[in-house]
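Handout, page 2. Input:
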Amino acid sequence: MSKSEKKAVERRSIAEAVTQGLAARKRKNRRFRLMGLAAVVTGMLLLAVMFGSIASKSYSAFLRTEVLLDVYFDPEVIDPQGTLAEDVLRQADYTGLVKSSLRKMFPKVKKRKDKRALYRLVSSGAGDQLREQVLNDPSLIGKHTQVWLIADDDLDQYYKHGNRQSRLKDHQIQWVAVLNADQRLRKVFNSTFFTAGDSREPELAGIRGALMGSFFVILITLGLSLPLGVAAAIYLEEFAPRNRWTDLIEVNINNLAAVPSIVFGLLGLAVFINFMGLPRSAPLVGGLVLTLMTLPTIIIASRAALKSVPPSIREAALGMGASKTQTVFQHVLPLAMPGMLTGTIIGMAQALGETAPLLMIGMVAFIADIPSGPLDSATVLPVQIYLWADSPERAFMEKTSAAIIVLLAFLVLMNLLAIWLRRKFERRW
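Output:
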């Protein structure tokens, strides 16, 4: 074989080797893309299963069952003297009016035990509903009126889900069948879930107290962590000298971002409650604890936003005679603010979903009243979810899922706000 033929054979073998190598690389790339796509699809399917499970358990919590009763607002019970004084109207036995109405509807119920079972078809808060109606319209006194009252959670679960989730006895189910046949049962939107505080009775429990507590906690956290985090980031990135002390500070900030949140709760318990004597379970203490927790996140995000500003902006400002402070606050900071706000909102979203540090400072207590300020005892929405999840009643289980939906909705809105701020104010270089 001549030299030219040998060279031709070598070239063909090299070309074949290159072709085979390219084909192998393309196959590897396709496999890697397929693996990545499979990972994304698997993650989305798992999220869909999780959200579907939560939604399927939560939708019924946004509805409540009501019972229509013929109530006689007996003047001898409500206002025997006819004074219409508010304190007298408030102290009347409205629960007795509800029981009297039920006895008239089911006159064959004679035994004391059966009467107690009959009374349990209506919520213990039905008397409060009648009280509010009389206080709003005293002219009801002495009249017979049909009133829709909140049903007990056992009847509510039976009417929504049937026997499979019911704790009603057979004779109670017969009474419910009579009420249903007379069209005295209905499902309506559960406004109580959004307007009431926590309660021992599932049908009366709501998330308003937890929402107000979360609002005060996040307000305090934002008011403290945003200016402190931005100021610390500006100093470390623009003014601080590069030496061992600043390096030590940076290392500690990065380490604090990875510290478990319960450690901050222990710190808050030791410093803010035991040492400083601040009130336990107060949103003020919760806000201070979450401020310590979110500060590293905001500082790191703010420093990254400052670093993303091109050096030419600083050089141009300094070249035009601006001082270092003017350069930072009039030129660099406005350009870095979108990234800072995005990091802050992400930090607030993380704080909104925290539970462990707030458990350590006592915000796990049962709080029925709606907090009116940052010093009142309160709980937050994640802790409320934790408390309800620990309750054995089926009605609390669906309220837990509903509260999770509300919390996820707030988190999604906060993340969408962060994305909108970045797209609106971000400049590409």
